[in-house]
Design goal:
- This protein is of the alpha/beta class.
- The chain has helices spanning 4-7, 21-33, 38-44, 66-71, 82-88, 132-140, 175-179, 199-204, 206-221, and strands at residues 14-18, 48-50, 57-61, 77-81, 93-98, 104-111, 125-129, 146-150, 166-171, 182-191, 193-198.
- A six-stranded mixed beta sheet has the order 2-3-1-4-11-5. The protein has a five-stranded mixed beta sheet with strand order 8-7-9-6-10.
Length: 222
Amino acid sequence: MPNCSTHKLPCAPLLALPRGRIEKALSPLLLRLGIPHSDDFETARKLVLPNKNKNLNTMRVRSFDVPTFVVLGAADIGIVGRDVLQEEGEQDLYIPLDLGLGACRLCLAAPLGTKSIHESKNQHIRVATKYPNCTKSYFAKRGRQAECIKLHGSVELAPSLGLSSHIVDLVDSGQTLRENGLEVVDTITHSTCLLIVNRMAMKLRPKPIEAWIARFEKENLE
């Protein structure tokens, strides 16, 4: 459970909010809920901030770290993409809401004109991705093996530099793929933002957490 004395803030639930793409998609909802966003953190230069009513504390972390903070009880609540949960495997989490925001696809992509993996005679497929577990599972289900090169960014550059023949990455509009001479070969999964909750926190502090779940649901419908 979060240590209130460590944060030097009222002992309100702590929300782990992902930095980057998802936070931008969540921005209107966070504004309606009075939850601090990126500009607030940059102005305050703090790691943890309370919302306007000081009944929720918020921290910003890497998207792939959100489930870890919530599962281990460092945060009570988190927002994370379904793609991250699928990559990280089964988590002991309560998932009360699919917010339906930040919709995108996790896709297999390759240079324009590349043969499909079913047509290709090349048994060795090298894939650049930050989703190696999802990628290996995708190819295993199709009776193929893939060598995964894990990258944390600039995945689209890998084929043009000879680092890989394919990539697996999140696709929104597809503009970045087109700019790098790539096209979607297949969609692996669809992803939206999920609200996740630590199970022990839900048992020990149900009222404030249930109240925030209800607020997220209400504001998200408006």
